[in-house]
Amino acid sequence: MKVGSPLGRSVVYGALGLATELLFTSVKEALRTRGRSARGRTSPWMFPVYALAQPLFEPAHDVMRGRVPAPLRGIVYATGFTAVEYATGRLFRAVLGEAPWDYAHARWNVDGLIRADYVALWGLAGLGLERVHDALTRD
Q: Could you tell me the end-to-end alpha-carbon distance of the chain, in angstroms, rounded to an integer?
């Protein structure tokens, strides 16, 4: 399946990010409440953040594809995604007064905007996103 334009792929990444976030937060809530609730959460403000995968992730993947081992690619993705999460969180706070997420309650948070315990998940997400990118650009 080929999504012809970068804008089209940005829309796919944005929608996929929202859906994944809803699933992730639903599972976390179900575990926290022992199944009494599985309410997922996200914000429409997250769409453009996830859409940034097109201009930021795709070029990195293209450069590393076939040249860099998966563990190192995962580290690069984890670093990049975490940096984008922090930077966009700061931007949201400056413009809106708050970010759509708040990790201040978490033990390993930085300014309430990123969680050190999520870094490995971001690396795995990046490795999974490689397949999505390849599918979206396959002839």
A: 7
Q: Are 15 and 48 in contact (CB under 8 A)?
A: no
**Residue 112 CB partners (closer than 8 Å, separation 6+):** 89, 99, 102, 103, 104
Residues 120-132, mean pLDDT to the nearest whole number: 97
User: What domain range includes position 21?
Assistant: 6-137
| pLDDT reported for residue 1 | 56
CA angle 4, 43, 79 (to 5 degrees): 70
Nearest CA to 64 out of 54, 79, 74 is that of 74
Per the CB < 8 A criterion, the answer to whether 52 and 84 are in contact is yes
Number of structural domains (the chain) is 1
45 falls within a domain: yes
**Nearest to 21, CA basis, from 41, 45, 49:** 41
Predicted pLDDT at 33: 83
Q: Are 77 and 33 in contact (CB under 8 A)?
A: no
Quick count: other Cβ atoms within 10 Å of Cβ 23? 13
